[in-house]
Amino acid sequence: MIGIVGASGVGKSTLLHILGALDRPTSGKVLYDGADIFSVNEDSLALFRNKTIGFVFQFHHLLPEFTAIENVMMPGLISVRREASGVRLKEIKEKAERLLDGMGLSERKGHRPGELSGGEQQRVAVARALILEPKAVLADEPTGNLDTQTGEELFNLLVNLNKEKGTSFIIVTHNESLSARCHRVLRMVDGKIAGL
Predict the structure, then answer these.
(1) How many domains are there within the chain?
(2) Cβ-contact 92, 73 below 8 angstroms
């Protein structure tokens, strides 16, 4: 688990968006397993984002017209559509149900985001990020809109996922007590990672 901290406007979210191939860098390269992720076409880049990286944002970006389980299933459905990967709808749904059960949302699967609390919405967002078992999850202020206790519970969930599943997390946070629990903390100053 890597925490990224720094003052507002220093570039933490921009760094996360570039690492996740949501934004292109104006110069330089982003290497993943030794290959520049931006040297491929847009379809390959979209496939990389879908299969390799999970995203959790401060504002969960759940689709309001879909239920919790449908929101969690979405990356899997996109994956099936993009490439005949052999993953079936039933398997995706079963996996989404297991993830939501593990998040303590067994009774909330059929609820739309507007019917869920902020903490429940963020747990749905975490489950959605994990549906395709990404190697890394990029989380941008995942506890920023939550009260202290709910934020702590969500962070504990991320810590447990890291320990139990081996999922890597790169977390942008203003919360120094949470970042102190990461294995490594990077501080950004004036658009650069300090000390590197």
Answers:
(1) 1
(2) yes
> Does this model's pTM top 0.90?
no
> Which residue in 61, 95, 60 sits closest to 77, CA to CA?
95
Residue 134, token pair as written in the block: 């990404």
Query: What pLDDT is stored for residue 105 in this prediction?
Result: 85
Contact in structure between 110 and 24 (CB atoms under 8 Å): no
Residue 58: both structure tokens together = 């401060």
Could you give the CA distance from residue 143 to residue 151 in angstroms, rounded to a whole number? 5
CATH number, domain at 155? 3.40.50.300
Place of tokens 């996109």: 78
Look up the domain containing 73 and give its range.
2-193
Per the CB < 8 A criterion, the answer to whether 187 and 12 are in contact is no
Helix 118-130 vs helix 148-165: crossing angle, to nearest 10: 20
Give tens-digit pLDDT for 51-108.
788 888 766 688 889 999 999 998 887 766 554 455 577 788 888 998 898 878 888 8
| Other CB atoms within 10 Å distance of the CB of residue 16 | 21
β partners of residue 3: 171, 185
The first and second tokens of residue 157, run together, are 């969930």
